[in-house]
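Hi everyone, sorry if this is the wrong subforum. Our group has a chain we'd like a structural model of before ordering constructs, and none of us has done structure prediction before. Sequence below.
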Amino acid sequence: MRHDAEPEVLNTSLNDETALREYARPYDTYRPGLVPRVLGWFLVACGDLVYGKKPSYLKFRSVEVIARVPYQSWESAVYTLLTLFYSSEERAMELCKLSRFANLAKDNETMHVVVISQFEKRDRKHGVFLRTVIPMIFAFFYYWAAYWLYLISRRAALELNYLFEQHAFAQYSEFVEKNADALKAKSAESAYLAWYGRPCANQYEFFRSVRNDELIHRNRSIEEIER
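Answer:
Right subforum, don't worry. Here is the predicted structure as tokens:
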């Protein structure tokens, strides 16, 4: 198994809709600050402009390429800060705890983009510009924006991630709800998914699990602020 078992147990528990609503409720009404709201609106608006407002395989692939970026960026920022605060054990532990969360989330988002890329290729072929170039441009700028934002304001960086993950959660929820029957008829066979350690009988189970992942990442972003 490629990852810790604990997040997978939580993910599976959220397949129950009542448990999902209860888990989501504490942060459903959270209101981030102005800067994260403006940046979050800009990210979502640009994505909707290029890929449309409706969820799709191509849009999900692009979202996941971008979604893994802040976690990697935070890890780099944490290493930078540890250079300054290594003499404070309390501060070092706080930073390393966030780094562990970021590393797990980064691996999880990588799994999403690798597997969804396979589904997207089977479903419909798109040009390299939409599939690769645009997401990489977004990812490049998002990486450095997230890095400097974290150094300036840890809260703002985590709140921006909350907004992006909330958008992803809403998109996957809509996709799963509207396409349940069709997704249940599609195979989720993937060597990478098997290696990661998440068995899914069909694409419905896979996308439902991704929906749960995004909600977990959303909530964890605010929990890191409150800790």
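For your construct planning: The chain is about 80% helix and 0% strand. Residues 86 and 93 are 9 Å apart (CA to CA).
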